[in-house]
């Protein structure tokens, strides 16, 4: 018997994020913060990525010894059996390594629990702010800040504040996008939204922060047509679903994880309000 997502969404999980976040923060402040080496795919790997990976690996094993771990930094031999894992942690110990090196501060720790290909728990931790965003689909989403020996959890919803998200009180659309990727398809989406729904405000940020913004009601859509991997998306999907949103593949279905030979994520639309007919119309255009 393994613990369910609500039991695993514990203060112990948040404490673990905090410990890994502190290790990242201390590397960020160190004189060696600009050091990196290139991985096989030519993406950068810093001391902070590996410090966080080691802490999370050890901590998640302690928290749920029976659940295997797929981390961005796991060596291939550690995850060779992954397709046979029904339940697993999908972890990005430092999402936004280029943002870390570029000193924008826009990086996160992403931890998802995936059960039969669906994300059932997700946490995005912001090391500089020391805030965790936690989502359990079907249960809710919370912004969590440490207080005393524990955590204060404030419920969040895509319908919150700002007039964006599901509230839709402001004319036009807020589109969230990566700082580092541009492509024609994204430009076509923006043109479509301008024609169908009024002025588009584009808001760029690094890493999984875009999911946090959607969950907090600070954006309407995050279209992703540039490459990323399952560990960049799974925890964000759990957070967003818990907050009332969705992450849809171009077939209109929620993304699934650990289901294919590749770990690259399919293109997707992450949306604050899945009931809005605009997204079906957009998907039909793509
Ligand atoms: N060519 C590529 N292939 C796979 N993933 C890529 C990629 N280029 C960028 N990414 C992913 O995009 C993430 C950054 O997202 P964004 O562009 O929204 O800030 C990176 O996270 P990491 O920093 O964890 O590697 C990386 O995983
Ligand atoms: Mg990473």
TrEMBL record:
Cellular location(s): Cell inner membrane
Gene3D superfamilies: 3.40.190.80, Fructose-1,6-Bisphosphatase, subunit A, domain 1 (3.30.540.10)
Cofactor: Mg(2+)
Chain positions recorded as Mg(2+) 1 binding sites: 72, 92, 94-95, 232
Pfam families for this protein: Inositol_P (PF00459)
NCBIfam families: bisphos_cysQ
HAMAP family xrefs: CysQ (MF_02095)
Protein name: 3'(2'),5'-bisphosphate nucleotidase CysQ
